[in-house]
Amino acid sequence: MEQRQLGDSGLYTSAIGFGTWEMSTTTYGHIDVDEASDAVNAAIDHGITLFDTAEVYGPYHSEELLAKALGNRRKDIVLVSKVGFQYDEDGNNLGRNSKYDHVIERAEGCLRRLETDYLDLLLIHWPDHDTPFEETMRALNRLKEDGKIRHYGVSNFTPEMMDECKKFGHLTANQVGYHMFDRRMESKVLHYCLDRSIGFMAYGTLGFGLLSGAFTPETTFGTGDWRSSGNAFRLPLFQEEEFAKELKVVERLKAIASRYDKSVAQMAIAWTLGHPAVTVGLVGMRNERELKENVAATGWELP
To answer: Cα–Cα distance between 224 and 227 in angstroms, integer?
Structure first.
């Protein structure tokens, strides 16, 4: 597996990262927890070293399942989590909160659930427009000084927001959605990160399943699946008319991929990793079959 440096941090990770949003058990419908856990260990065996999670995945389920699956292999990986929301006693999301005390408190919770003394990378999940970035950065710097995180960064931040954050600390990474059906980041964010040596972590590499090649016109999403809303991060990817058009595009992509004896999923991963600004392409993997297919996408450059 190809290893890439995350920004200018000196932290090296696998080009493919194991995304664990699907392990939250509440956002993608039913998953086989045992199969997902087996996939975690198989991923390490196949050279995947970066595992990305967040307290909001569930909330908390993903972190807890990942910790259980990793066991004593925590030391072999780069562990990433994200904070920046607040919850009620029932785990309902009450909105964004990146205030100093809250970031410290939530980071401590991540460490407990992940059963680790430190995180390799902690990200602010979404910008909190009610809290000055200076305050948030002060919390991240404190966590780093205390040895609870090695590096920090942001997720879903614009260049203007990163400019403000950089006044008060050093950003190692920005994690933003980027895939064949969502190229909005190409005009500004990708170039910003590349020019300033900030690692770019692309989520949704397979278009939240669209680029897996598994969907048909008859595919539906149950109430426990976030895609049932029809929207994906302000794009109507799963609305009926758009969904039908995208499936036709996927069929054309399958034909192109087959010329190189690749699947459409492998081509989609290679396409994302081919952008010079992208450090890591995050991919959800529910079982070892999906894992092996995804790993085979590396080492191949699109002509």
So the answer is: 9
β 93-96/85-87 pair status: antiparallel
Model confidence pLDDT, tens digit, residues 81-121: 999 999 999 999 999 999 999 999 999 999 999 999 999 99
Query: Is-contact 180 273, C-beta < 8 A?
Result: no
241-267 burial by CB neighbour count: b if 16+ within 10 A, else e?
ebbeebeeebeebeeebeeeebbbbbb
Q: What is the pLDDT of residue 25?
A: 62
Report which residue type is found at 213: G
Any idea how long the chain is? 303
Rounded mean pLDDT, 63-67: 95
Q: Cα-flanking dihedrals φ and ψ of residue 217, to 5°?
A: -60, -20
**Which member of 12, 28, 57, 203 is catalytic?**
57
Instruction: For tokens 């992509």, name the residue.
Output: 253
What is the DSSP secondary structure assignment for residue 299, as one 8-state letter?
T
Which of 72-86, 158-172, 289-303 is the least confident region? Answer: 289-303
Q: What residues contact residue 90 under an 8 Å CB cut-off, 6+ apart? A: none
Reported pTM? 0.95
| 57 catalytic per annotation | yes
First CA to last CA distance, the chain: 20
Pick left, alpha or beta for residue 44 (phi over 0 → left; psi -120 to 50 → alpha; otherwise beta): alpha
CB 280 within 8 A of CB 15: yes
Q: Can you give the pLDDT at residue 26?
A: 63
30: how many CB neighbours lie within 10 A of its CB? 9
